[in-house]
């Protein structure tokens, strides 16, 4: 029996000054392999809007799609904690529909949910979710669901005052009950200051090396998605070329009569 990663494991990592890893996954087999590789948290990110569904922004993805991907990923994972990113408008209108929508992801196999941003409503939602037994990962700094009000893909927390403001928000999220906080596109020194002043772990998404964990979109890590590449995303493989080569060879084999062989028929 594998020992499941839980909110306590995550807090222990921070308390023991041990780094942990977070990768996105959107399908069963990818989730299975990255879980076997030892990734601690598997996130069904709403980034799937762009990398799996071809939308332009995360706004276009909804509860129905996130539910399908959550079910698939949860089936593939044994050890890691499974976190579903709640889609735009699924937790913004009122607390009871937020609880219902987040609860649906738990019923489908997620162990926690991630919600973006900071305001009084978000704090109320977090409190109610935690009271209901749903662990919550916060998300501050650049928050893609607020892209239009932030005025584009902009680095957040650049000045001392801006870093103080993010820390203030993070402390409020912490008080409301989040078990971790993603810091996206925040300068390294600001993220270091914020991380050192929080009890819960921070997860860097382009926020440098001093956060307690690192998260990347798996399609960037595998070299599969090529429409755009964030500066902070390190590519470890070339799946795009691998897929192209395999498809090309298959196409050639079919057309030349080289597939199927004697071993591949009944
Ligand atoms: O949607 C996503 O994949 C994310 C992570 C990159 C933090 O929010």
List keywords for this structure.
binds 3-methyl-2-oxobutanoic acid, 14% strand, 266 residues, alpha/beta, single chain, globular, eight-stranded parallel β-barrel, TIM Barrel, 43% helix
Structure in a nutshell:
The chain has 266 residues and is α/β, with parallel strands linked by helices.
Written account of the structure:
The chain has helices spanning 7-15, 28-36, 48-51, 63-76, 95-107, 120-132, 147-150, 160-176, 188-196, 218-221, 239-256, and strands at residues 20-24, 41-44, 81-85, 112-114, 136-141, 180-184, 202-205, 213-216. Helix 6 (120-132) links the parallel strand 4 (112-114) and strand 5. The model has no long low-confidence stretch (mean pLDDT 98). The longest helix is centred in the last third of the chain and has 18 residues, at 239-256. It has 11 helices and 8 strands. The protein has 266 residues and is an alpha/beta fold. The protein folds into 2 domains: 7-235, Phosphoenolpyruvate-binding domains (TIM Barrel), CATH 3.20.20; 238-266, no CATH class. 43% of the residues lie in helices and 14% in strands. It has an 8-stranded parallel β-barrel, surrounded by 7 helices.
Low-confidence stretches: none
For the termini, the CA-CA separation is 39 Å
User: What's the helical proportion of residues?
Assistant: 40-55%
Structural class by secondary-structure content: alpha/beta
The beta-strand count equals 8
Largest sheet: 8 strands, parallel, barrel
How many domains? The number is 2
The mean pLDDT is: 98
In which order are the strands of the major sheet placed?
A: 1-2-3-4-5-6-7-8
CATH topology description of the largest domain: TIM Barrel
Helix and strand succession?
HEHEHHEHEHEHHEHEEHH
Output the radius of gyration: 20 Å
Shape: globular
The distinct bound ligands, ions and cofactors come out as:
3-methyl-2-oxobutanoic acid
The named CATH superfamily of the largest domain: Phosphoenolpyruvate-binding domains
**How much of the polypeptide forms β-strand, as a percent range?**
5-15%
Using the coordinates above, name the CATH class of the largest domain: Alpha Beta
- What's the total helix number? 11
